Amino acid sequence: MKLRPILVSIIVLFLYSCDDGGLLIEPDISNRSVVLLAPADGVEVSSTTVFFDWEEVEDATSYEIQVATPDFDNTQQLLLNTEDSITFKELNMNVGNYEWRVRAKNSNYSTEYSSARFSIVPVPNFSGNTVLLIAPQNNLVTNEESQLLKWNSVEGATLYRTQVIEIGGNVLQELATQDTTLQVTFTEGERIWKVRAENGIETTLYTARNILIDITNPNVPQLTAPADGSVLNSQDVTFEWTRDPISGSNELDSLFVYRDVNLTDLVIKEQVNSPYSTNLDNDEYSWFMRAYDEAGNLSNDSAVFNFTVNE
Predict the structure, then answer these.
(1) Beta 49-54 vs 36-38: how paired, if at all?
(2) pLDDT (tens digit per residue) in 127-139
(3) pLDDT(27) > 80
(4) Domain 27-120: which topology?
(5) The whole model's pTM is what?
(6) How far apart are CA 303 and CA 220, in angstroms?
(7) From the candidate CATH numbers 3.50.50.60, 2.60.40.420, 2.60.40.10, 3.30.1070.10, the one assigned to the domain spanning 126-213
């Protein structure tokens, strides 16, 4: 019978932890292990760009990955020590011996490290190298036409060739540099930029990333309801408007509702879709809309409509 109070306490703690306002107790993952996929233990990698991959661990929220040379027992240099939620990483490395390890974590627990040793051997042919792109990030959406492209150097390279192409494959720009950075001005639209290394005799394959340049402001929303000067006999108010979309990055609408005609007493400022319904007190209101897009462009403000709620 003495166990009953303990059991009740455990049940209460469990119910509290599951409540939205209570503590979140994450599962214990300490007895699980991370399965390393590549590079496997003992392999020789004939590329200076190494792609690290491992399997996802259930209930883990992040992974700590470390890379050392020549190994963790005799560490001369810790080349990588980072934590992220993804299950892969890429790193540009020199010829030599290495060990890498990963452990899974959540807010309360972590697994043991899983580790593997590998070697990077000289690339048999220059063309077997890979250009590792650094910036801008893949699938960047921006309204800045001028971008500084960055990539890691390739041993033996005397030149880097960069192309900017349309999605359909038409080459818009082709530039060459001996540096590992290049300032490029993009034209508006979906573009692919890619870089390859050259040594005068051989070339690597191109490495590519996507970018969306959008410099066009969204159209101004056209207000429809509540109509200007209208008197509503219900506190349930539905806002409606129209706007012709423009191709490019995703477009969104913002609603601004004020309790005065001077637009000083802000009641609602929210990203919304038409129609949008809310509850308002009896009073006089002014409202307008503004559109913006994922690239950071803004429309002009719409007309300002006034209405009264008088239930």
Answers:
(1) antiparallel
(2) 888 898 999 999 9
(3) yes
(4) Immunoglobulin-like (2.60.40)
(5) 0.69
(6) 9
(7) 2.60.40.10
